[in-house]
Amino acid sequence: MREDLEEIYYTKQDIKTRVSELGEQITKVYKGYDEITIISIINGAIYFTVDILRNINVPIRLDCIRVSSYGSKPYPDKKPEISVSIRLGIKNQHVLLIDDILDTGNTISMVYDYLNKCNPSSLLTCILLEKDCPRETSFKADFIGFKVPDKFIVGYGLDYAERYRNLPYIGSLKTELLNPV
Ligand code: IMP
Ligand code: MG
Asked: CATH second-level architecture of 2-173?
């Protein structure tokens, strides 16, 4: 294992297996629908989105939304804000919102409320990781990949100051590497 990591929780194979299971689950829910609109919160959900889309077997449209809150700190230092919005119209559309990790829950609930105001026909959420921590919001995702401990998680799209996204596994960064603020 790399020296900067504390622990690896899910290997490349674990991720592959789970993402394909989730894709099947999602396909079952939307089976028979003409089309669904996937909205991915970038950058964190990029890897997960690309892989899960290969396992969702219904017609889709894809768009991304960019939210900022973390900067280069290990915890959010301000309220999440949408910095780049979606381009597709979602009124009367079936929407599936995808994010990388549920920590405080502030990001996903803010984006959820924002999209909901556009009057989609339905709005479900899919999250790769749920952190095992007391949550600031009571947000519950419809589809969840894995649980992770209350540590700073990197890999498979998750970053620390834009680094580590391309690690093929999901693990925690050593606490001493996180900038004290
Ligand atoms: P929340 O708003 O606190 O739920 O945090 C959600 C966003 O913060 C995610 O979309 C991630 O981009 C980022 N985030 C939260 N926890 C972690 C972590 O442990 N590692 C990397 N990014 C994280
Ligand atoms: Mg991030």
From this structure: 3-Layer(aba) Sandwich (3.40)
